[in-house]
UniProtKB/TrEMBL annotation:
It comes from the Eukaryota. GO terms for molecular function: ADP binding. Pfam families: HET, TPR_12, TPR_7. This is Heterokaryon incompatibility domain-containing protein. It comes from Exophiala spinifera.
Length: 1048
């Protein structure tokens, strides 16, 4: 950010600051005059700018800032180089923040002057009359006696109906209130002062808020600094509805700060800018539950649940937990783990939640993990990563990557850092001790406290365990009274909690039942006992820890809901088969429509309140999500099992169809919400646990292809084993499955095996599939050619490049005939062929294909389309491999400019181009430039994607090569070791990228003359290349050649 200042000699200068180094500054808000009158960035290079009319505003801003004790000030006309598109784009993106961070904002109203204010009914200065008028209006609004003279600019005295003073009219009619950009300039700064053309102070945003509200329609709360998220989207849109901008696109671009979203600037797109803005707002709203990023530091608290106002008792338990977690003293030398265990519904979650709120001042940071499943735990880690500031929101470009693993690793690294000690990490609901992935979620070092809740008894490995007992009777009575909002006869209350076994979950639900149905306690008690004797269903397991009174209480509520709101009860029963920790109402609606349960989708509009008021479900945060306790879900499923499995299966299948509908909705969206996808994966896993494959209703699943869709979705997110099971269910469930659908499912199975690394098995299956598809569907069928392309991919992965090329060409031949030369499938196939030529060092053949693809994309998509720019980058990379460095830089610079323009400087796709430019510098011997750009890219990746992102370690690998070429071998080994450590954590030791780094390290040892070390690393890499890829793979053969050269 550049700031202006006048020195002691009156010379105006510009100084550039990084955002974290900015001094206090003032900022000007104004309406632009003609372009010829305004002082621009280039004008400051010549003294003639002082003759321009706009120089008056600069002088005014400087003088006013000086009066307020500020040296620096900012004026948009001359502090931005508007000829530099990247700089202009970045400035527009940061504009709201710049105004927000300003110490003072001065609004210069060039169309309000002394002449406007000369009103025959008034006396005194314009400014004093205006301020008095503001107080007068405020007093009238509060209906206080008015003691000021009545002849003020907003006063009605002396004027007929509809008449206004010239001053009021000038202020109300000022162009400043009608311009698009000035909306954020009014809203963002804390202190806004208004001035006339002559520099007279008219008042502030605080003193004139009523008048500004009347002029603009902006609520006073917003003018007073209330968070903009408190105002509806349509309401904020209305603030800008009557405002104008010189360029059509700026009507959208000027609202980015108001909605907290970013869209790339594409001047010339016209009204499409508003469409993109609305799309960005919709995506932002879908992530409202995600906690916004904060800078790293102390005092971070991430608790997704509010403090329970009905919490009672448990004083001794809370004190005992506090004693256990502090048993090692402070400062702690190591991490302390404590498990709070007990039966479901006993109140474990509420106890540790109360502990977190009660003792949060004792910890530097407090974080909450939903540990019901691996998926929900990883989701929580992603939220924490954003809270700490280790990563941005998961973006659509990386929707299929395992960002969860990156987030877990990043947060754990942060927790183990010495400067971040004394944190509290709460893992709630860790009951699945068989899932070995869950162990990776516990930090094993650091100086914090880990507090875990679990129903499992086998937690002996933990240092500290608290066995939570049932509440004492007094606490149970207090909870019943709070949840029912009623005081009853002591004897009735005592009997109710006794029948419920003092189980908090049941007592709370009973109180909600009593309150909402206005049932007298004695009557409820009578019905509870009677229902207990006639209960027609039994607990799900022999060692069920709850008495029949608990089941009776829930059954009473089930009966009531089933009678009064049968459709809502159906919804509850369907939800019993989903992952209970988080269920989205929005996705439920889509799912019910897909499952042809339209009546249930309609009921959700206003019927869900019954579940919350009866304490059968709990709201999660401020969005449309809710949760259902696992014990309650178990009871619902068991109640459905009264008949021989049929009714239960029916609801389980409906749940499955609901999830399939959610999948269909998500996959149809152009940009998918990463968190929503993770939640859906949890629901898929839950359904899989409860579905009975032998009872699947074949007609239902045959017509919807639901099982196939679930398989595709799981495969997309790396759940290859789950994907295979869903594809096989489709094959085994539907006897009349069409030939096409059968082959499609089998192709899904083989594809999952391919990406699991089972290359030989996948290859055999694809070959058989291709033969069948050719016979049954024809050689030109789309699925046939998809299988041919998969054969090409498989052969490439096994290192058989010639065979891969043959299959790619075969696939291309038929899809080109069917879809035409410019079809995306054709261009993708051509790209695959070019990649093979590049690997074979047939650079001319690869160039001819890339050039053809580029021409077709430019014709059909345009020169600046992201797909076009991707091909431009590929050509640049090809020229680098070809050692034609000037041409490489030409194409890569074009790709960089285009991606910076559309995506911004820090977008990962932009950073990928910068990394490749650095690689060109490396290979052409420009080592200092290579190191500078690689380090810049490395730091940007860490900032944008988090310190554990794969590209961070890829760039570290390249830095290892940079320093090796520079003969700084120790520095080279440091970077290679960082790359190796990260790649092994993320990918394992048999991954090609991990092995690439090991080979690089071996090369450094060889150059240092440490031949034994080099020999050890080369052999280590060779063994794993052979194990993973076979002897024919080009990577295996490359290491063999290097090893032979060393042994000579």
């Amino acid at each position: 950010m550049r700031l202006l200042k006048f020195n002691d000699r009156g010379v105006l200068s510009l100084t550039e600051y990084q955002e974290n180094e900015l001094p206090r500054y003032a900022i000007l808000s104004h309406t632009w005059g003609s372009d010829e009158d305004e002082v621009t960035f280039n004008d400051l290079k010549h003294s003639s700018f002082k003759k321009k009319a706009g120089y008056t505003k600069i002088q005014f801003c400087s003088a006013q800032a000086k009066r307020d004790g500020l040296t620096y000030f900012w004026v948009d006309t001359c502090c931005i180089d508007k000829a530099n598109h990247s700089e202009l784009s970045e400035a527009i993106t940061l504009m709201f923040r710049w105004y927000s961070n300003a110490t003072q904002c001065y609004v210069y109203l060039s169309d309000v002057s002394r002449d406007n204010a000369a009103d025959s009914h008034t006396k005194g200065t314009w400014a004093s009359r205006f301020r008095k008028s503001a107080r007068l209006t405020r007093d009238r609004k509060l209906q206080r006696p008015v003691t000021q003279p009545s002849a003020e600019i907003f006063s009605r005295e002396g004027r007929g109906p509809g008449e206004e003073s010239a001053a009021e009219q000038a202020f109300r009619d000022s162009r400043w209130f009608k311009r698009g950009w000035t909306l954020q300039e009014l809203i963002a700064p804390a202190s806004v002062e208004f001035f006339s053309q002559g520099g007279e102070r008219l008042g502030s945003k605080a003193t004139l808020k009523q008048q500004i509200h009347e002029i603009t329609g902006i609520p006073i709360a917003a003018l007073e600094g209330a968070p903009l998220s408190e105002f509806r989207v349509d309401e904020r849109m209305q603030w800008a509805a009557q405002r104008e901008t010189k360029k059509t696109e700026d009507r959208a671009y000027s609202l980015q700060g108001i909605f907290g979203v970013f869209i790339p600037l594409i001047y010339g797109e016209g009204e499409n800018a508003r469409v993109r803005l609305q799309r960005a707002i919709s995506e932002s709203l879908s992530k409202q539950s995600v906690v916004p990023p904060q800078p790293p530091g102390r005092g971070l608290v991430s608790l997704p649940l509010p403090r329970n106002k009905n919490f009672v008792g448990r004083v001794q338990s809370l004190q005992e937990i506090h004693k256990k977690v502090n048993s090692c003293g402070f400062p702690r030398s190591s991490c302390v783990k404590c498990v709070v265990k007990g039966m479901g519904g006993i109140g474990k979650t509420q106890v540790i939640l109360e502990y977190a709120y009660r003792y949060r001042e004792d910890f530097s940071s407090v974080f909450w993990i939903r540990a019901n499943s691996y998926e929900s735990a990883v989701e929580s880690y992603c939220t924490i990563a954003q809270k700490i500031g280790l990563s941005n929101s998961p973006s659509p470009w990386s929707i299929e990557k395992d960002l969860g693993r990156v987030a877990v690793s990043s947060v754990q690294k942060w927790l183990t850092a010495s400067e971040n000690g004394n944190w509290l990490l709460l893992l709630d609901g860790w009951d699945n001790l068989n899932d070995q992935r869950m162990d990776s979620l516990i930090p094993h070092s650091g100086s914090g406290v880990i507090l875990i809740t679990s129903r499992r008894d086998d937690w002996a490995r933990c240092e500290e365990i608290l066995d939570l007992q049932l509440m004492e009777e007094a606490a149970s009575l207090s909870l019943l009274s709070k949840s029912s909002l009623t005081d009853y006869e002591q004897a009735d209350e005592e009997e109710i909690v006794k029948v419920l076994g003092n189980l908090p979950l049941a007592v709370d639900q009973a109180g909600a039942h009593i309150h909402n149905l206005k049932t007298p306690a004695r009557k409820y008690l009578s019905r509870l006992k009677e229902n207990r004797e006639t209960l027609s269903w039994t607990p799900p397991i022999i060692l069920w820890p709850y008495g029949k009174g608990v089941l009776s209480a829930w059954d009473l509520t089930f009966q009531q809901l089933e009678s009064s709101s049968p459709k809502v009860f159906e919804i509850l029963q369907v939800c019993a088969f989903l992952a209970g920790e988080y269920i989205s109402e929005n996705l439920l609606k889509f799912g019910f429509n897909f499952a042809q349960k339209d009546a249930l989708a309609r009921v959700m509009e206003d019927g869900m309140g019954n579940l919350f008021s009866l304490s059968l479900a709990k709201r999660e945060g401020d969005d449309d999500g809710f949760s259902i306790h696992a014990v309650l879900q178990t009871c619902i499923r068991q109640r459905l099992s009264r008949s021989p499995g049929v009714q239960r299966q029916e609801f389980a299948e409906t749940a499955l169809l609901v999830v399939a509908g959610a999948v269909q909705k998500l996959t149809s969206e152009r940009q998918q919400n990463w968190f929503t996808c993770r939640q859906v994966l949890s629901h898929i896993t839950s359904c899989e646990e409860h579905i009975d494959d032998t009872l699947l209703r074949k007609p239902v699943f045959g017509s919807t292809r639901a099982l196939f869709m679930l398989g595709q979705f799981c495969d997309k997110f790396g759940r290859h084993d789950q994907a295979i099971s869903w594809f096989e269910r489709e094959l085994n469930t539907v006897p009349d499955l069409s030939v096409h659908s059968t082959l499609e499912c089998r192709d899904g199975v083989s594809t999952a095996k391919l990406f699991k690394g089972q290359h030989n098995e996948a290859l055999a299956e694809f070959r058989a599939l291709y033969t069948e598809a050719t016979d049954q569907l024809g050689v030109e069928h789309e699925l046939t050619n998809k299988i041919a392309n998969s054969l090409g991919i498989t052969y490439k992965k096994t290192g058989s490049l010639e065979k891969a090329l043959w299959w790619y060409r075969r696939s291309l031949l038929h899809i080109k005939e069917r879809f035409g030369e410019k079809d995306p499938r054709v261009l993708a196939s051509l790209n695959n062929i070019a990649v093979i030529y590049k690997e074979q060092t047939k650079y001319r053949e690869a160039f001819e294909i890339y050039h053809d693809v580029l021409r077709k994309k430019e014709e059909s998509l345009g020169e600046e389309d992201l797909s076009t720019l991707e091909t431009v980058m590929n050509i640049g990379i090809l020229y680098r491999r070809w050692k034609r460095y000037d041409e490489a830089l030409k194409f890569l610079q074009r790709a960089l400019y285009g991606k910076e323009k559309q995506l911004g400087k820090d977008d990962p796709k932009t950073l990928a181009v910068k990394g490749n430019i650095a690689n060109v510098y490396l290979q052409s011997g420009r080592l200092d430039e290579a190191i500078r750009l690689h380090e810049e890219t490395y730091n940007s990746y860490k900032k944008v994607c988090g310190p554990e992102h794969p590209e961070v370690f890829t760039t570290a690998h390249w830095l290892g090569e940079d320093y090796c070429q520079k003969r700084c071998y120790d520095k080279s080994l440091q970077w290679y070791e960082e790359a190796l450590s990260g790649r092994k954590r993320l990918h394992g030791e048999h991954n090609a990228e991990t092995l690439e780094t090991i080979v690089g390290m071996a090369g450094v040892f060889q150059l240092k003359g440490e031949y034994y070390q080099a020999l050890t690393w080369y052999r280590w890499a060779l063994v794993r290349f052979r194990e993973r890829f076979g002897s024919e793979h080009f990577g295996t053969q490359s290491v063999e050649r290097q090893l032979k050269a060393l042994l000579r």
